[in-house]
From TrEMBL:
Cofactor: pyridoxal 5'-phosphate
Name assigned to this protein: Cystathionine gamma-synthase
An example Gene Ontology biological process: transsulfuration
PANTHER family found in the cross-reference section: CYSTATHIONINE GAMMA-SYNTHASE, TRANS-SULFURATION ENZYME FAMILY MEMBER
Modification N6-(pyridoxal phosphate)lysine occurs at: 194
GO cellular component: cytoplasm
A Pfam family per the record: Cys_Met_Meta_PP
Record keywords, A-Z: Pyridoxal phosphate
Recorded family membership: Belongs to the trans-sulfuration enzymes family.
TM region(s), chain numbering: none
GO-annotated molecular function: carbon-sulfur lyase activity; pyridoxal phosphate binding
CDD domains the record matches: CGS_like
Source organism superkingdom: Bacteria
Length: 382
C-alpha cells in the first residue's frame, strides 16, 4: 500500500461499532475472561488500544516491526538509553537537538555512558572516534540547526561490521521523506511533537524498532519506566498522521521557495537548506531522501540584524519548536541550544547571527511578505 494510505488505515480498523475514527480508550484496567486469560489488554501503562493504534501506524510508516509511544521525545530517548550499560560509549552527530545534548551530558553521563561528538557525515571522523567500548551511533540527518547530512547506508554498513547499533532521530524529515530503517538503521526516534503531530498542540515521543531483541527490551523498558503516551494524546497523534503526506509536501515546497528568496537577500550571509541544489550536502542527501523538509537555517549579516528581525515579525512567530502549522522563527544560540557551552556552540556554527525557520502551512507568499517587511523595518532602523 502507498504511504498515504498507510497513514490513514494502518494501526486501526473499525471495531464492532463501526467507528471510523479510533476510539479513545481511557479505561485503566481490562477485565479478564478467566484466570490467566487476557483480552490482550490488562493495564493502561502496559498497553491500551488507542496507543497501540498509533504505535502500529508508526511502525508501518517507518518500515519497522514495532512502534512505542512516549510522553515526549526526551522520554523516548531516556528510555532508549536504558538499553545500554555503564561504560558504554556513543558516537553522536555534533549538532544534535539541544535537549538531546543536555540529556547525554547530564543524566546519562551520571549513569556512566560516554559520548564523542563528530560530524557523522564524515566517515573518517567517525572511524577515528571509535573505541572498543563504542556500542552505538546516534544520528540526526539533517542535523539541527546546521543541516549537516549523514550517509545512512554507508554509516550503517560500517557500524554493523563493528556490531554497533545505529539510532536515527528522524524528527526533521519524518518517514514521508526518509526511512532510516530501510537504509540500514536499527532504531528510529521521533519527537512526535513536531511534524508527526503537526499542529503545535501535542507533546509525544516515538521509538520504532526492527530487530526482535530490541523490540522485546524496549517493550519491557517502556512498561517498567512508564513514561507512556496518554490515550487522548495517542488519538491526537493518530489524527495528525492522517494528513502527514499533504503537510510534508506543502512544508517542503514552501521551504524551497523561501530558501531561494532568502538567498537573494543582501542581509543574509548564508542559507542552510539541504534542498538547494548548490548546497554542499545536496548530493549526499538526495541519495537517501524523497524530499527536503520544512526547516531552514540562515545566517544574518550581523547579530544586531538577527535579533531585531525577531521583534519585527507580524505573522511568523518568534518561538521554539518546529514542524507545525504555524511558522516559527528561533534563535538557536539562546533558545534550542542555550545549554550547549558557548564555545562549543560557536564551533558548531551555532552563532549570534544564526536563525532557524520552521516553515508552516501558511501561504508561502504571506511568509515571504512578513520576512520582507521585517527585514525592511530593521534596515530602516539601522
Ligand atoms: C523536539 C526535538 C526532540 C525532543 O522532543 P520533545 O518531544 O520536545 O521531548 C528531539 N529531537 C529533535 C530533533 C527535536 O526537534
Amino acid at each position: 500500500m502507498d504511504f498515504s494510505t498507510l497513514c490513514i488505515h494502518s494501526g486501526y480498523k473499525p471495531d464492532c461499532t463501526g467507528s471510523v475514527s479510533a476510539p479513545i480508550y481511557t479505561s485503566t484496567a481490562y477485565a479478564h475472561p478467566g484466570v490467566q486469560q487476557s483480552t490482550g489488554y490488562d493495564y493502561i501503562r502496559t498497553q491500551n488500544p488507542t496507543r497501540e493504534s498509533v504505535e502500529r501506524c508508526l511502525a508501518a510508516l517507518e518500515g519497522g516491526t514495532n512502534g512505542f509511544a512516549f510522553a515526549s521525545g526526551m522520554a523516548a530517548l531516556a528510555c532508549l538509553l536504558e538499553l545500554f550499560q555503564p561504560g558504554d560509549h556513543f558516537i553522536v552527530t555534533a549538532d544534535l537537538y539541544g535537549g538531546s545534548i543536555r540529556l547525554f551530558n547530564t543524566v546519562s553521563r551520571k549513569n556512566g555512558l560516554t559520548y564523542t561528538e563528530v560530524d557523522t557525515g564524515n566517515l573518517e571522523a567517525v572511524e577515528k572516534a571509535y573505541r572498543p567500548a563504542t556500542k552505538a551511533i546516534y544520528i540526526e540527518t539533517p542535523s539541527n540547526p546546521t543541516m549537516q547530512i549523514t550517509d545512512l547506508r554507508a554509516i550503517s554498513e560500517w557500524a554493523h561490521a563493528k556490531n554497533l547499533k545505529v539510532i536515527v532521530d528522524n524528527t526533521f524529515l519524518t518517514p514521508y521523506f526518509q526511512k532510516p530503517l530501510l537504509l540500514g538503521a536499527d532504531i528510529v526516534l521521533h519527537s512526535g511533537t513536531k511534524y508527526l503531530g503537526g499542529h503545535n498542540d501535542l507533546l509525544a515521543g516515538i521509538l520504532v524498532t526492527k530487530e526482535e531483541e530490541d523490540t522485546a527490551k524496549i517493550k519491557f523498558l517502556q512498561n517498567t519506566i512508564g513514561a507512556v503516551l496518554s490515550p487522548f494524546d495517542s488519538w491526537l497523534l493518530l489524527r495528525g498522521l492522517k494528513t502527514l503526506p499533504l503537510r510534508m509536501e506543502r512544508h517542503a515546497a514552501s521551504a524551497l521557495r523561501i530558501a531561494k528568496w532568502l538567498k537573494q537577500q543582501p542581509q543574509v550571509r548564508e542559507v542552510f537548506y539541504p534542498g538547494l541544489e548548490d548546497s554542499p550536502r545536496y548530493a549526499a542527501n538526495v541519495k537517501q531522501v524523497s524530499g527536503f523538509g520544512g526547516m531552514i537555517s540562515f545566517e544574518a549579516e550581523s547579530e544586531a540584524f538577527a535579533r531585531s528581525v525577531l521583534s519585527k515579525l507580524k505573522l511568523v512567530l518568534f518561538a521554539e519548536s518546529l514542524g507545525g502549522t504555524e511558522s516559527l522563527l528561533t534563535y538557536p544560540l539562546l533558545q534550542t541550544h542555550s545549554d550547549v557551552p558557548r564555545e562549543e556552540a560557536l564551533a558548531k556554527g551555532i552563532n549570534e547571527r544564526l536563525l532557524r525557520l520552521s516553515v508552516g502551512l501558511e501561504a508561502p507568499e504571506d511568509i515571504i511578505a512578513d520576512l520582507e517587511q521585517a527585514f525592511a523595518a530593521v534596515a530602516q532602523e539601522a
